[in-house]
Amino acid sequence: MPPITVENSYGQIDGQNVKRYTLTNNNNVEVKIIDYGGIITKVMVPNNQGVLGDVVLGFDDLEGYKANDPYLGALIGRYANRIANGTFSLDGTKYTLAVNNGPNALHGGIKGFDKRVWRSSISDGKLVLTYVSADMEEGYPGEVTATVTYQLTDANELIIDYSATTTKKTVINLTNHAYFNLKGEGSGDVLQHFAKVNADSFLPVDDTSIPTGGITPVQGTVMDLRVKQKLGDVISLVPGGHGFDHNYCFGKTGWIKNMARVEDPSSGRYVEVHSTEPGMQFYTAFWNNVTGKGGKHYGKYSGFCLETQHYPDSPNQLDFPTVVLAPGETYRQTTTYKFGTNS
Q1: Across the strands, what pairs with 36?
Q2: Is the pLDDT of residue 191 over 90?
Q3: Is the pLDDT of residue 46 over 80?
Q4: Which of 21, 71, 237, 261 is the most buried (most CB within 10 A)?
């Protein structure tokens, strides 16, 4: 495996130096990650003619990532997705979070894990990122030490391992918010992509994207992607009028599940996601409206996200898989994005 290289001068934020790491494999696949927000800034993979192309949305420099309203490529924590009304209770104590998405808390708050400089190093062919989140940071209890590793294999797999411990009982839900466009970032929308999601159920949501409480079978609904569908054929039929932005349910945590595969016929590229998590948010970027790499416009449906996670609003919905982490326990999740081409 080729060594991971590092640029020590990607820029500065909060008085801290930001580094950019480049992971490569023996197939000339390349992944670039910065230690600000653990952001995946580039993924170069071949099409079916062997031509490399960048398939993740992003910005040209650190200035673009400082704003990053769509969370392009970023690690998300302490709590990925939404918590209703920005509040939850734990052992009788009510905690209040920043409300930053309509009436709800989203993706860890005003300054979540995506807006922090992580301590970074290289170990055993992996990029290792660590961040210590202070007790009551963004309203969450407990000092949490989170470690995330990135590894690129010769099977064109990007493996992301997450772990976390806490000094007080807390809630935690970590993910990565990469936006993919397999035709190439900035090449327009993904409506010609085909998506297959191997889930029998999903979470319906209200008009603020909070689950309404029921785990609902996909059978007989537009949410049924167990047989691959062209996004352009189904996206306008999704309830709410904003395309896909829903959690698919895969059962218990801790064992690897083949969650989804998305492919682009024009390039032949595909990405598959496997994860130990019980859920995956499939998001088709309805709200995108930013200037990305090379001045290209990322508009509606310009990418898609496969965010492996625990369910949205789980701290307030006791029937959902627990997101509670106690002292002495270790939160773990592993997600693999595998890239390839159809012959």
Answers
A1: 117
A2: yes
A3: yes
A4: 71
* Cα–Cα distance, 19 to 39 (Å, whole number): 11
Judged against a pLDDT cut of 90, whether residue 213 lies above it is answered with no
Question: Which residues are part of the catalytic machinery?
Answer: 177, 307
Closest CA relative to residue 175, chosen from 38, 57, 339, 340: 38
Per residue in 91-145, pLDDT (tens digit) is: 999 999 999 999 999 999 999 999 999 999 999 999 999 999 999 999 999 999 9
Residue 255: pLDDT band (50, 70, 90) is confident
What is the pLDDT of the chain when averaged over all its residues?
A: 97
pTM here is 0.98
